[in-house]
Amino acid sequence: MAKNDLVLENVTKKFGGLTAVDRLDMEVCQGQIYGLIGPNGAGKTTIFNCITGIHPCEEGRILWKGDDITKLPPHRIAAKGILRTFQTIRLFPQMSVAENIMSGRHVKSSQGWWHGIMHTPKSRRDERENWLKVEEQLEFFQLHEFTVQPVQSLPYGLQRRVEIARAMAAEPSLLILDEPAAGLNDKETMGLLKLVFRIREMGVTILLIEHDMDLVMQLTEKLTVINFGKKIAEGTPAQIQQNKDVIEAYLGSDDDD
Ligand SMILES: Nc1ncnc2c1ncn2[C@@H]1O[C@H](COP(=O)(O)OP(=O)(O)O)[C@@H](O)[C@H]1O
Ligand SMILES: [Mg+2]
């Protein structure tokens, strides 16, 4: 069995009186495509925010390749190779596709500010390397023809691709996608499916939240289902489809996705 990359132990996150994530245990193995599903408001995005340090959890531990990352700030977690996209796209709308992707290189930059100002050999080397990585993403995500276009002028499907490209520019080991197919049409969703498989072939572990059940069933190897912040089931897509609690949670909710 593959090694565990990401381990959540007893993770709990409260907002005032509301327990958004309740004693959650979860293990994602290296190279897996792992799905996190559940009705709206179940706590899925909050779990991603805990993992990426945006809303650190009060209780429990999060381990990454054996290191405790529970209390680390977001930039330190990103520097460890955990990168994400957001449920609502967060790009720089007026900046070009290339500039947005370049912004993903930020977490790789270890040099002091003076290198840039002084145009040291290191800063020139880094800049070359950064543009090379941006080029790679433009190619991989088939965004070349839009290189200089401001992202706000692009359709939603392409903006989603730019956001994943930006995360990939940082050379992640774990890519976390929060509802990557939201707002996409069927053709764009199929394109996304192929992209995610190709990203995994590159050795990247993928953790995703997705409402599109067809996509989840085709894409993921293992799933955790949560409802009201608690894990109600865990298993392969086939096991989850048969699970009574899961069927009840979905049919019993107002979620019409
Ligand atoms: N920053 C926040 N402040 C207060 N409550 C929040 C915050 N983020 C999420 N919540 C609440 O936590 C619960 C889980 O939300 P969320 O994780 O966004 O659910 P999901 O992604 O599964 O739809 C919801 O009741 C939501 O209102
Ligand atoms: Mg959410």
TrEMBL record:
Does this UniProt record's set of keywords contain Cytoplasm? no
Concerning InterPro entries, the annotation shows: AAA+_ATPase (IPR003593), ABC_AA/LPS_Transport (IPR051120), ABC_transporter-like_ATP-bd (IPR003439), BCA_ABC_TP_C (IPR032823), P-loop_NTPase (IPR027417)
Domain named ABC transporter: residues: 6-253
UniProt cross-references to Gene3D superfamilies, sorted A to Z: P-loop containing nucleotide triphosphate hydrolases
Keywords, ordered alphabetically: ATP-binding, Nucleotide-binding, Transport
Q: Which SMART domains match?
A: AAA
The signal peptide annotation in the UniProt record is none
Concerning Pfam families, the annotation shows:
ABC_tran, BCA_ABC_TP_C
Q: Please tell me one Gene Ontology term that the record gives under cellular component.
A: plasma membrane
- Protein's GO biological process: D-alanine transmembrane transport; L-alanine transport; L-isoleucine import across plasma membrane; L-valine import across plasma membrane
The molecular function terms of the Gene Ontology recorded here are:
ATP binding; ATP hydrolysis activity; L-isoleucine transmembrane transporter activity; L-phenylalanine transmembrane transporter activity; L-valine transmembrane transporter activity
Question: What is the protein name for this chain?
Answer: ABC transporter ATP-binding protein
